[in-house]
UniProtKB/TrEMBL annotation:
The lineage of its organism: Bacteria, Bacillati, Bacillota, Bacilli, Bacillales. One of its GO terms (molecular function) is N-acetylglucosamine kinase activity. Residues 7-300 form the ATPase BadF/BadG/BcrA/BcrD type domain. This is ATPase BadF/BadG/BcrA/BcrD type domain-containing protein. Pfam families: BcrAD_BadFG.
C-alpha cells in the first residue's frame, strides 16, 4: 500500500524549512537547510532539494509517496518568475502536482488560516502582503512600494549615520556596542573598515549586518536617539505599506499579523501597533499568527490535494513544535 504524504516548503533568504505530513495532518518529519534564494546563495537549489530529501527520509517516505508539494519561494512574485522557481524544485523521481507561490503567501496562510488580513514580514527580508475578502493577493511591491526594514537595512542605516557624524552625546553607549560588534577601537577604525567594504563579499556583508540588527532595536528600546531615529523611520515605511493595502479591504476593521525578528522586537511591535491604532481610515486589529509558514504550506498542500481542512487536521498539525510561531 502506498504511503501517501504531502510536503510543505517555506524558503527564505536565510533558511529553507520542509515539513512532511500524512493526509490526516500528522506531521511526520521536519528539516531545515540553507537559503532558498538563488540571488543570495548560489547553492539555493541544493539547499531546497537537500531539505526535501532529508525530510522524506526522516518520515520514512519516498519521492513516489508524495501526492502534493506546496512551496513558498522568495524568488517568486509573478508568472515571469515561474520557470526559475520550478527549476529549484526539479528532483528526479518527484512527479507530484505542485503549487508555487511567494514565501510570504505561505506565511499568510499559516498566520490567518486562509482568512483575510495583512501580514507584515520584517526580519531577514521585508514585505507587506494582504489577502482581501474577495481573495485578492496584494503586496506593497504591487504599488512600487518597498519598506527597507529587513534587519540588515537597520544596521546599514545606523552605521552610515555614525560615519556621517549624525550622532549625539546620548548615542555613545550604542556606538560603543557597534564598535565592539565590528571589533574596531573607534569610529575612525569603523570608517577604514567601511572603506574596505568590511573585507567581505556582498552576501556575507549583508549577513553580518543582519546579525547586528538586534543591537539597533534594543538601543531604540533604551531610548538611544540614533537607534530610535533609524527604527522610527523604518516603522513609518511599514505603516505606509500597510495603509496602501488596507484601502483595498471592504471591512473597516482589518486583521494584521507581524512575522519576523525585527517586527517582533519589543520596540517595533509596540510603536507600529500604536501608530496603526491612530488610523483615520481603517481600524487594524493585531493578532498572533496561528501557525508557522511551513505549517501553512502543509495546509495548502492538503487543501489542493482535496483534503478538507477540518478541526481534526488543524489539531494534528499544531501538535508539532515547528508548526508554532516562536514570539
Amino acid at each position: 500500500m502506498k504511503k501517501t504524504c504531502v510536503i510543505g516548503l517555506e524558503g527564505g533568504g536565510t533558511s529553507t524549512r520542509v515539513m512532511v505530513a500524512d493526509i490526516q495532518g500528522r506531521v511526520l518529519a521536519y528539516k531545515e537547510s540553507g537559503s532558498a534564494h538563488p540571488n543570495k546563495d548560489s547553492k539555493a537549489k541544493e539547499n531546497i532539494q537537500m531539505a526535501i530529501l532529508e525530510a522524506l527520509t526522516a518520515a520514512d517516505r519516498s519521492l513516489e509517496d508524495v501526492c502534493y508539494l506546496a512551496a513558498g519561494l522568495p524568488c517568486y512574485q509573478q508568472e515571469d518568475d515561474l520557470p526559475l522557481a520550478n527549476s529549484l524544485l526539479l528532483i528526479e523521481g518527484l512527479c507530484c502536482s505542485k503549487r508555487i507561490m511567494n514565501d510570504a503567501e505561505v506565511g499568510h496562510i499559516g498566520a490567518f488560516l486562509f482568512a483575510p488580513g495583512i501580514m507584515v514580514v520584517s526580519g531577514t527580508g521585508s514585505i507587506v502582503m494582504g489577502l482581501t475578502e474577495e481573495g485578492k493577493v496584494l503586496f506593497n511591491s504591487t504599488f512600487g512600494h518597498y519598506a527597507p526594514t529587513a534587519a540588515r537595512f537597520l544596521s546599514y542605516q545606523a552605521v552610515h549615520a555614525i560615519l556621517a557624524g549624525q550622532i549625539q552625546l546620548e548615542d555613545q553607549a550604542f556606538i560603543q556596542e557597534v564598535l565592539q560588534f565590528w571589533r574596531v577601537m573607534d569610529i575612525e577604525g569603523l570608517r577604514e573598515l567601511n572603506l574596505k567594504h568590511f573585507y567581505m563579499d556582498k552576501a556575507e556583508r549583508d549577513r553580518q549586518f543582519g546579525l547586528m540588527a538586534p543591537l539597533v532595536t534594543r538601543a531604540a528600546a533604551n531610548n538611544q536617539p540614533l537607534a530610535k531615529r533609524v527604527c522610527d523611520e523604518a516603522i513609518l515605511t511599514l505603516e505606509t505599506g500597510i495603509r496602501l493595502i488596507g484601502q483595498y479591504f471592504r471591512e473597516e476593521q482589518v486583521k494584521i499579523s507581524f512575522v519576523g525578528s525585527v517586527i517582533q522586537s519589543p520596540y517595533f511591535r509596540f510603536q507600529l501597533n500604536n501608530i496603526l491604532k491612530k488610523s483615520a481610515n481603517k481600524q487594524y486589529q493585531l493578532i498572533e499568527p496561528k501557525l508557522s509558514a511551513v505549517a501553512g504550506a502543509v495546509l495548502i498542500s492538503l487543501k489542493e490535494y482535496g483534503i478538507p481542512i477540518t478541526e481534526e487536521i488543524y489539531s494534528e498539525i499544531t501538535k508539532h513544535e515547528k508548526s508554532k510561531i516562536v514570539l
